[in-house]
Design brief:
Two copies of one chain form a homodimer. The first copy, chain A, contains nine helices and three strands. Chain A is mainly alpha-helical. Chain A has two domains: 63 residues, Winged helix-like DNA-binding domain superfamily/Winged helix DNA-binding domain (Arc Repressor Mutant, subunit A, Orthogonal Bundle), CATH 1.10.10; 148 residues, Four Helix Bundle (Hemerythrin (Met), subunit A) (Up-down Bundle). Chain B binds a DNA duplex (30 and 30 nucleotides) through helix 3.
Chain lengths: 227, 227
Amino acid sequence: MSGVPKEDRSAAFFDVYRALREEILAGRLEGGQALRQDDIAQRHGVSKVPVREALRRLEMENLVEFLPRRGAIVRSVSDDDLLEMLDIRVALECRALELAIPHMAESDFELAQAILDEYQASPDKKRWSELNRRFHTCILEPCGNRQLLSLISDFEQRVGPLIRLRVTEVTGLERPMKEHRQILQSCRDGAVEDAVATLRTHIETTKREVAASLRRRHLQKITAADQ
Amino acid sequence: MSGVPKEDRSAAFFDVYRALREEILAGRLEGGQALRQDDIAQRHGVSKVPVREALRRLEMENLVEFLPRRGAIVRSVSDDDLLEMLDIRVALECRALELAIPHMAESDFELAQAILDEYQASPDKKRWSELNRRFHTCILEPCGNRQLLSLISDFEQRVGPLIRLRVTEVTGLERPMKEHRQILQSCRDGAVEDAVATLRTHIETTKREVAASLRRRHLQKITAADQ
DNA sequence: TTTATTGAAATCGTATACGATTATGAGATG
DNA sequence: CATCTCATAATCGTATACGATTTCAATAAA
């Protein structure tokens, strides 16, 4: 499910890859920031060779960008990029759910329900996004399409950190919970189209929230500049 | 549209990357075959460093696999992998079409029609897959989602070569052409749901054809083993 | 004949080395 | 005071070097 290839975890380059990936996804590295190969190598106690391997993989993941003769920089995610990723998420998650429902067993429903119950009981906003992720994983996983699940996981890892604060805090628990319950019920009923339709609305609402938030931020920047 | 990142085309590693990618996608390298780093380096007149960079990128693309302390091998695509990719294609292309239709201009319809006309006129089976690809690209491109188009292109490049002989030759021109015309007409009418439904059927039929073909091949292997 | 042993060759993963290009900063020039 | 050399330092991209592990084949043992 992780999206990150599992093989060869022992190699030196993998530590570098993992660390850099984590720092970029967590937003601890600014977009556009130069990734000095010698620095990274020294920090990890290795040479430049494994560092470059790690950077090339991150380049393929669109997390870093190589500028000819000037090395790698952290790729910045534009507002448009983010919205594009959310549209792709709609496609991937809806398809996964559609394929998953016919394979769901009673235990899947129970697990999903348990997550929703915990969701409901938890007063901790920080847990919400974790529980949200688990619910989505839980209902999509039965699709059995590993590559699809891996893709979804990749996008979640990239998109999640960027929208979490922006959405979870603002939206509250009411609406998403209602949609989650509705999706689960449709899954129980084997109502594929209903479930997918609700999931689609669910994600598209998120996208609209993000878009609105970005709009406001943009507006703020403009008016601030005018002052 | 190519899926292959465009930056840094000048670097030595890029030639290696490009060449290996092409060889793997074209099927000129068997699945499981070892990719000897020194050999590749010598063939391209470079050292192992850029070769390893190329291999790491291909690993991220799922085209090669690193075995600890045994280097890289060409990743073989199982029957299940192939069917999984076709399911993902359904998700991606349907979403792209859905997003594309509201943005289509008259010139898009004309271009699509021109491709279909050429399709119809061409007696050359080898051209069919090329024209098919161009038609799909043409109706999806207006979606404006670069990442989505790039993903679609990646999957097309991986899946295409594996199913072309298997499907195009067998299926003939009748059914796909009829579906293509129907999709285009729905696009003209702005009938998003109809267009998407037809496209979905279109790809799912392909998937069923591929699955059937694989089933027969598998059966043949079993009966051959029994002899 | 088949299976184990073992030493040489091949190959990997990574460190080090180095020419080439790009950033940096001090002093010259307007 | 701004800005324009140009030498120096920093950094890149890649080649070469090397210990460690794996493969392989020839020989010994069963």
